[in-house]
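Exercise 7.
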Amino acid sequence: MELKNIYLVQAAEQFSGNTKAAYLPYAVGTVAAKAWSNKTVREAFNLDRIVFLREPIEQMVDSLNDPFLIGFSNYIWNYEYNKAVAKKIKVTFPECLILFGGHNVPSGTSLLEECDYIDILIHGEGEEVFEKLLCTLASQGSLSDIPNISYRQDGIPLQTTPVAISGFDYPSPYTNSIFKDILKEHPDMQFSAILESNRGCANNCAFCDWGPLKTKVRMFPLERVKEDVKWFSENKIDYIWGADANFGQFDRDIQIAEWMIEAKGHNGYPSRMKVNYAKYNSRNVFELARRFSDSDLSKSTTISFQTLSNEALKNIGRRNMTMDHFSDLIKLYRASGIPTYSEMILALPGETYDSFTRGIGMLLDSGQHSVIEVYDCVMLPNSILAEKDYIDKHKIKTVRVPFVLYHCEAVDEDIIEYADIVISTKSMSKEDWVKCKLFTVAVQSMHCLGLLRCFSIYLHHEKQIAYSDFYIKLVQWYLNRPGTLGYDIFTEIHELLQKMPQGINAQYFYDTSYGDVRWYLDEGAFFRIISDIDRFYDETKAFLNSFAIDEDVFEQLLDYQKSIVRVPDNTGFSITQDFDFYNYILHGLNNDYKPLEKIKNTLTCSPNTVFKDLTEYAREIVWYGRRLGRTLYTGNPESVAVKYL
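Solution. The predicted structure, written as tokens, is:
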């Protein structure tokens, strides 16, 4: 019997860097590995091809050979592309079954009603359901017997019975050779991969679409995980993303980390690993972070909050560690030489402009000076946040805007992806949302990337100026100073942000001088300032002088602040001053205040890398290096020497 051809699609963008890079399509790989482990499936169907890049639609459709079924994995970065491809396939191959699954498939039959070219939906996890679907199609059985799907019967959309998935011993797509053709056909591609050692999450956060699945955390067999790690190393997979919701929550995660470290020690692969750390097991998380740092698998660790508003925490079903505990953790990581970063989500229900800016200030006050990443609150279709009662209760308003993948090739797409961004709630207006974003750009560019960090630390300790107040005043000062570089930058960003409620996503910076990629707005602000850094400090001097800093300290602090910013064409510096700013700021960063000491010294910074162009500088210092503090010469203690005179 001739096998019927099955195609799976998990289309993603290529990343730009030293080489072309892309993720192996793990989601469709897992359902394929499970399905083709079944003899009935193998005897009836041929997995002809997995599409993992956004290919031109005509090219993709022309490559199909008598397709029987094409399954699409959907998320916000490929949903519209998938629909356009599926529609074209249905025109070209009317008898081909179109299957949609993944996080962007909503519950119910609404997607079938919207898109007449889609035949079947899988709701929730796909491994067991996809296997049952193919077995049923092979035997020409009834789709009504398959749980967790929607389909049409006599033209009428129907949904079958929802059933909780409990499986945990699924075959791996890696060791079962699901990706062998992709690796063979793309020998020059630098691949990244997903490592999944467990599935599920104990938390039930309103903004996330994992919690409502209501499944317990299920552990995949350790032997499978070990073999996956071995496969990564043997196939020279460069970057690993850990899919576990709370890596470090379980003691066995230490063993998994050791396997990763051993694999890298064997042949250098994988070179990097990124995980979602557990929120409530700081002992294990620190141990993992220490081992990853020592082996150069990961150089930074996230300590996330999402919000510091008690009202917002209550509304999203989340709790935080105390700020004292957070501060202690920051000190512990910094003492161990491990950079940390924190994450926040803007516009969670209950958050206000005051609580948001105050929360950012609390992070800075507790010692988080390196990286504070602020994400838009995206309404995911299967989250609690997207439920009608929840929306009505909190008066949530969203806007659909084009979805932007940062640090990817800035390709002009005929098909635009979209994200539904929360733009206002009962507690936050659209105008306040814009103000929060502008404040965020100021903190990220001026403090986290380091342009005015020394002054804000000095004023915080010597003048009791709250960090949040400093940056609120700074933004307003720039907006009131036409003709200055700060005015040009922040006015332009303000105008861009005001387009968001209109459905225009302009939240990125693009300048081919820094590579053919899209950058975050704060990175763009940083680039524009370092390109005219003398003007920036000359103009900002008046704002800094308004805080009445002693003149002898002020001028030397300004020289110090300006000198330590790593600009593209500078190979280092040496500066002699009357005050020990280096150690003063270092103690400030460590939240371990010591008075500024007046002692003559020479600070020398001699980095070992000189960049050949702006693209390389932008990639290595701002993209790869921001979490490591590389935007400042002093961010690398090994290149710093202080000599007291």
